[in-house]
Amino acid sequence: MTLPEPTRSLSDAEFAFRRGSLLTVLGAVLVVSLITLSVQAHWNFSLSDQLLLLLLAAKNAALFTWLWRVPQAFRLVGLIELTVQVATVLLRLYVVLHSAPGFHGLGGYAVWMIFPYIVAFIVLPAHPATLVSGSMFAGLLGMIGLYALDPATDPALRTGLSNPLLQTILMHATFIALLGWQQHLHGQFVRALFSARREATLAQLDDLTGLPNRRQLGRWLSGALDEPGDLSVILLDLDHFKRVNDTFGHEAGDEVLRQVAGVLRRSVRRGDHVGRWGGEEFLMLVRGDVEDAQAVTQRLRAQLEAAPAKQSGRVKVSCGVAQARPGETPHELLRRADEALYAAKRAGRDTVAFAA
């Protein structure tokens, strides 16, 4: 790895949260449907109610299985479930208001009429979810209003249903407001979390090169020394970098640093690390012995030679390599790598020296 592992996209986390929530709703309704079917013989359910429960259970089992196996189908599964639920609520209310009085009426179904709002806010962003919920609520209000104003409505039924219908309206309005506010707070939380994680990630990176900075490299080094297996460090320094700044200006020097950073990213293997140690110095952590580290330096120097800077030409580096000893501290290992680097400088630069 050449960079700190990027913070997991919050859109991915959001998707996982929403998919899990929809699976929970589908699974819960499936279980409730099966339980209700198991006791229907004691409650004298009509044949039509039994068939509807069977269809509901089959629908939820199919959608649950689909979403479980194909996560990418989340939006389609959610929209299907939302459409079915909205249509069922409106149809059920219409049938209750335009049928002869019965024992059940809305009955136990009244508490399930709020589920479309829950599904809407799971499947859709806040604004579309509010629009869908408001549209369904408006449909309920319109249906109830037409029923209340219809001269053919039995006054006794109108009086008997007035309180249940009023409570239904108030409950639905409360749920829409609650879910809308919850979605608003959730959005604020997600944005704050994203900002905090982004700042934490940027605190581990060097502003100029985008490579991990000294602090992050120190953490990696401390952790790597505690793990089994060989570990080598390569401390490298750009040769005559001051001359580049003095001759071509600091912008050209910055461009050289960015170019070297790009080459470093391509030079390390999976499981290795690289970052900017400070100034024109870079540090590489290599899983392996000095021979593995030497192979990395050879590849790095060849890539630098093949990609000269636009203004200053070929970039040359001096490298100090040190293999960690058992029980050695990060400070001791880095000190030996630094001594090897200075040995490479004294040997004429553009070379690799190995710590004793």
UniProtKB/TrEMBL annotation:
<feature type="transmembrane region" description="Helical">
    <location>
        <begin position="106"/>
        <end position="124"/>
    </location>
</feature>
<keyword id="KW-1133">Transmembrane helix</keyword>
<keyword id="KW-0472">Membrane</keyword>
<keyword id="KW-0812">Transmembrane</keyword>
<dbReference type="Pfam" id="PF00990">
    <property type="entry name" value="GGDEF"/>
</dbReference>
<feature type="domain" description="GGDEF">
    <location>
        <begin position="229"/>
        <end position="356"/>
    </location>
</feature>
<feature type="transmembrane region" description="Helical">
    <location>
        <begin position="161"/>
        <end position="181"/>
    </location>
</feature>
<dbReference type="InterPro" id="IPR029787">
    <property type="entry name" value="Nucleotide_cyclase"/>
</dbReference>
<feature type="transmembrane region" description="Helical">
    <location>
        <begin position="74"/>
        <end position="94"/>
    </location>
</feature>
<dbReference type="InterPro" id="IPR000160">
    <property type="entry name" value="GGDEF_dom"/>
</dbReference>
<feature type="transmembrane region" description="Helical">
    <location>
        <begin position="130"/>
        <end position="149"/>
    </location>
</feature>
<dbReference type="InterPro" id="IPR043128">
    <property type="entry name" value="Rev_trsase/Diguanyl_cyclase"/>
</dbReference>
<feature type="transmembrane region" description="Helical">
    <location>
        <begin position="20"/>
        <end position="39"/>
    </location>
</feature>
<protein>
    <recommendedName>
        <fullName>GGDEF domain-containing protein</fullName>
    </recommendedName>
</protein>
<dbReference type="InterPro" id="IPR050469">
    <property type="entry name" value="Diguanylate_Cyclase"/>
</dbReference>
